[in-house]
């Protein structure tokens, strides 16, 4: 029995809606709805309002509004509408296990001989969160593109002002321009890749793939970077180990993790890749001997553009999107990626992949 049916059947001291009052219409609405009388006592509510505001207090009907929602501005808005018969609008933010935000529209309504006010609660929590994410993303994009672009423009102007004829420095200036242009290109490629993945336009073809061979190929591709920093690359995976994954995306995930492990390692450190399994999952771990990551950073390490050390990341050319791409690709496989670390003890990134899909 829904709340409106109970309201029809129970006897209360509050005014009940007449038979022609269509409670079913309110019950069909996704928005939370409360109808309040002049004493700020709730006459009716729908299931959405019950889910949002009832908590452990039982039915909302016949309770005072102050018992259900403790917000002075909301109470004033309802009173204003009840006293003036003029619509009111107010923003509501409710704290709790999960913070919720609402735009509330309140309008006068007559129920039989009773003057009342009806409030429509439009949940804007997700919309505002998405807007904040969008603004943060655009801010990060602008910042990440502006930095190399500023360097490019500065050195182009220097060359135009005569440095093009400076044989000692002109090639160095062009090198800086190329380095920053490549950085912008990598960022744009990563943004496009992440956008494709998040939009659901990337599909994976799951097949058995020899993990040892994939790691060996990645080590070969990254050997120059590792050699420049005297980093030892260690493949601890047995030659006969296979995992169920999309071959291209598996290589992409592991390349991101191993490349990061080389970049953020100690000089003369090591990067090792290991494998473990259960009946249902394969686990591929990439461990480095770097400085490690503190707990507060570790919680956010897979967020887009999040960096534990922005200055160093820019110096070595990171875009801040690699780990976010790994996270989405792992989930696209039906798996997950996690990180474990402590300061001074290096970091281990682990990809979990289902053994059978």
What keyword list fits this structure?
Helix Hairpins; Heat Shock Protein 90; 357 residues; 5-stranded antiparallel β-sheet; single chain; elongated; 12 strands; 3 domains
Under the CATH scheme, which class of the largest domain?
Answer: Alpha Beta
CATH superfamily of the largest domain: Histidine kinase-like ATPase, C-terminal domain
Average pLDDT, all residues: 84
The main sheet comes to:
5 strands, antiparallel
**Count of individual beta strands:** 12
What is the topology, as strand order, of the major beta sheet?
A: 2-1-5-4-3
* Shape field: elongated
| SS-derived structural category | alpha+beta
Runs with pLDDT <50, length 5+?
Answer: 1-15, 17-21
Any guess at the CATH architecture of the largest domain?
A: 2-Layer Sandwich
Helical run tally:
13
Strand content bin: 15-25%
Instruction: Examine the coordinates and then state which fold CATH places here, giving the name of the CATH topology of the largest domain.
Output: Heat Shock Protein 90
Domain module count: 3
Q: What is the terminal-to-terminal distance?
A: 41 Å
Secondary structure layout:
Blueprint: H1 3-9, H2 23-27, E1 32-37, E2 42-45, H3 47-53, H4 65-68, H5 72-84, E3 88-94, E4 100-111, E5 114-123, H6 125-160, H7 170-198, E6 207-210, H8 211-221, H9 223-228, E7 232-235, E8 242-245, H10 247-263, E9 270-277, E10 281-288, H11 295-298, H12 310-316, H13 322-332, E11 336-341, E12 347-354
Parallel strand pairs: 7-9
Antiparallel strand pairs: 1-2, 1-5, 3-4, 4-5, 6-8, 9-10, 10-12, 11-12
Helix pairs in contact: 6-7, 7-13, 8-10, 10-13
